[in-house]
Fold each of these.
Amino acid sequence: MEENNILRIAMSRRSTRRFSSEPIEVKDVLYAVQVALQAPSGANRQPWRFIIIFDPEIKRGVRHLCEEWERKFHESQSLPKWFKEWLEERNISWEKPFLEEAPALIIVLADKKAPYSRESTWLAIGYILLALEEKGLASLTYTPANPQVISRYLDVPLNYTLEAIIPVGRSGENKVKESRLGLEDTVCIDRWGNNLELSSFPLAGYTRV
Amino acid sequence: MEENNILRIAMSRRSTRRFSSEPIEVKDVLYAVQVALQAPSGANRQPWRFIIIFDPEIKRGVRHLCEEWERKFHESQSLPKWFKEWLEERNISWEKPFLEEAPALIIVLADKKAPYSRESTWLAIGYILLALEEKGLASLTYTPANPQVISRYLDVPLNYTLEAIIPVGRSGENKVKESRLGLEDTVCIDRWGNNLELSSFPLAGYTRV
């Protein structure tokens, strides 16, 4: 096995908002869901369900409904200033062409009644993203402004929440990955406040019970 | 690159509640966090923070606090019957020896104020689990019955929630993986109700925009 394979995949992945019209293999999309099905979940209830949309008409319907509510969201006065600026810097508007341009959309649903349903489902989404990247497929975790209207459009029963829409395809943009914090910015040892310092930490060591 | 590497890793991983006393390499634990830091997050806020506990005294303190609240939880009358039975079948009681037996505990924290903080953090936990498995390390996503008391014990500021404790080590049990649903049980095509049938689905095909 290649060393640090997952780190390499995680580092190469970046969220994609423009997809090329290149076709993708159906089996690669199903592969990613198959990986997600192996994730752990609260009491192993496997609360996730998936709708994979290939049909261009249905993708268009999803796009229109999402954009209708995104428009309201983007125009609302309650949006925090920092977030408005963040969106503007990235040219992210209420328009969501990726919902039509991506060859496939994975709609991720979660059973409302299962314990830790949302947590488990998002953990499984992490699995999906890495598996797609392994297959050379770009993706985005898009959370619609009004998930209920999309659920209704797709005939999803009321006991499921729509957690995310993951457009899947070949990247059509040449974006660099957004910067990430490092280990020293995010890790404490033994308790809060005791920040990790890699230069003095026994990285080569072993830890035992 | 080896084909279907991530599926192989996801399939081999199973939640572990007994750890051996075998030492583990410090750098392998940090490797998994490094992978998590590459995950996407709402507005790239990277809401996650980690405390890695190696100190046996602090692990013991965490265990005692967790068990105190687990006991109350397990004895409570409000526990659903199916869940009580599920726990009993697996010999899961209020006792959490893995919190002391695992050579390391990764405490996962999430910034309460970041958008989609919980979702992003659990997605990153998915990354962590796969990265640990890649390094041959067993893990569990344990959610304490009272996360606040553990936060307080570890001096975590109030603007973070404790989302999970991930004990990490070599497996000390010979459990089989819990069964998982298959693609046909969980996937619909284009809309709810249109269940995937692998025998008739054009798996070898391509999908285009």
Amino acid sequence: MVYITRREHFSSAHRLFRPEYSDEENMRVFGKCSNPLWHGHNYVLLITVKGEPKPETGFVMDLKKLSQLIEEKVLVKLDHKNINLEVDFMNGKLVSTENLAIGIWEELEPGVCASGAILHSVKIEETENNSVEYFGNK
Amino acid sequence: MVYITRREHFSSAHRLFRPEYSDEENMRVFGKCSNPLWHGHNYVLLITVKGEPKPETGFVMDLKKLSQLIEEKVLVKLDHKNINLEVDFMNGKLVSTENLAIGIWEELEPGVCASGAILHSVKIEETENNSVEYFGNK
Amino acid sequence: MVYITRREHFSSAHRLFRPEYSDEENMRVFGKCSNPLWHGHNYVLLITVKGEPKPETGFVMDLKKLSQLIEEKVLVKLDHKNINLEVDFMNGKLVSTENLAIGIWEELEPGVCASGAILHSVKIEETENNSVEYFGNK
Amino acid sequence: MVYITRREHFSSAHRLFRPEYSDEENMRVFGKCSNPLWHGHNYVLLITVKGEPKPETGFVMDLKKLSQLIEEKVLVKLDHKNINLEVDFMNGKLVSTENLAIGIWEELEPGVCASGAILHSVKIEETENNSVEYFGNK
Amino acid sequence: MVYITRREHFSSAHRLFRPEYSDEENMRVFGKCSNPLWHGHNYVLLITVKGEPKPETGFVMDLKKLSQLIEEKVLVKLDHKNINLEVDFMNGKLVSTENLAIGIWEELEPGVCASGAILHSVKIEETENNSVEYFGNK
Amino acid sequence: MVYITRREHFSSAHRLFRPEYSDEENMRVFGKCSNPLWHGHNYVLLITVKGEPKPETGFVMDLKKLSQLIEEKVLVKLDHKNINLEVDFMNGKLVSTENLAIGIWEELEPGVCASGAILHSVKIEETENNSVEYFGNK
């Protein structure tokens, strides 16, 4: 078993809030991350896939194909978008980085599986100091 | 003459667009950076100040005071805000990183000058790959 | 289960040595890290906590609260201090990065537990090239 | 159990190809990484070793000794070399980063074991965006 | 005058040597960088362009267009190539990073000028520790 | 004229203080950087040298020789030392990063000059966020 990781980026706007709360309640719970006119981040995305290297290529999975899969399933939806308003797989969810990692896992898992590899983790670095990692439902 | 640099961060939403253009024209000129529902970045801000080290402290300017000045004049206005809608010194301007650097220079220059040092440059890294630096009106 | 990581910093002086050794013996065992007049580092501290995201916030644990906990329990004791002489939880211990990671774990574990999350790991990067990670007593 | 990691570098030339394929077939499978006149990388190597800190030093393993072991067993063979043509432990293998990680594991494992610690993982960052990690045959 | 910088990458093989020297003489002068079977690097390329921001875009030069220019004039020739054997603008030159920076300047200067901006500098980071910067013939 | 930069590191203890002040006065002026039992940093040192590339090597100055010069003149004195107590060229000076940069300039300038190149700047990054650069007495 070898683990390979592809690093990608997206720059998006978002807001942490619950629609049933007032702006004041949201500010109390979520602080400045709840600014009603949005804020944004350069998110760093690290996708780790595992498997046996294939004898004919030496690859667990061609990293160019993994990069294309991430582009098609995740980045086209997230990059230069408003995560709360424009991203189908986050519809109706609280846009915490935790929930975003779970959402990205679900978008990627079938495609990684179809390639013959196993999705191991989805890591998101929201800032230099804050990151989240999800290893699937286990 | 010694140069000192303080690095700070802010996370904001913005959009590149001209109000007199249609969304299509804005997309043609500014691409995905013109997304009408905003996107955002983790901006890295590097402020460089120059002067003679003072004999009693060995400092050109106390970096903690430079950091406070940046916080009070710039970061409270920009961090976790929408640069197009909420930042007074960018009011009515195209929110390019170039114009943002010039705006930040104007916010900081009087305070740096009052401390007895000279503002040398304002550098903004919008992403790992794109940055802008302004050395004042010369 | 989702894992969240907060990155913090502290800058401290320390020395590797055993009091029962002579300076020569300490130099032979610990090399330049045993310099009797101290040396120091910018330590990077990465604290990882795991748990289920809470439905009302989407958070495993509020990263601002995790940051405050690290500040109160660890950074106020370590930052801009001499680890051998001024840090209660390292009293009488060899100040290796391994032992420092174990000490920090013990300082943080009760507070993370009280917040309803689980401390997963304490990682310390002493330099760009040397790091240590501790996952608790298991 | 504590985990320690040493970060090292090597700069090498290589090529992804299968000798039984034509240049065209190699280009189709491996893309530009198959350029017949070679290309190269600054590889970052992260070696993680685990064990109990020894009471007399506080170390799992002296990081200077780990660094020397990596230098002697791995870097002298790889650094400023052509991995396909000059590295004995990659002889006859496809030079994928996956296979390189497995090869480095086999070079290092006996020496780490002899020091009383356990080799935990070999991680190679081929570029900022592509990395591979191997945890041994399990 | 505002300065904008675009960061790009290329991964190439090269060798430092003079054809009129023997391998031994080359090794004496250039050390391991003269390995006859090549070595390679991940080069980081930083291109800085200066000018007045244009009123209609707020841009000194559209960074996407600068990126395309670098891609077309420089990266297609260098990336995943052997700099000594395959790069027309380095033909017959010693492949030092200094000479490479001068060569890249000459490739880029006409295109930057045609866009209405001024090429300010070409910086190449060959490794984390070694870099070169060229500001043109002045 | 081409500029080359070598990046080095040193890890040292220091303290900001004036001996004629009480501990309280030092704390008021220098804050936690004045801790009487020291603190320390991983300093990053960037030395930039300029000149014409020599036709026979393509080098402004052999970066290995620049690295050796920095090692012999600066790093052996600073690395794993107490800058206030053990570094001859800082004797009797306030150990601000500004003064340290000037001190390092004076240590390096004759050796760079003897090699036929020109010392351009000494930059010290004390932390990720604080840095100082000195361009000589002009």
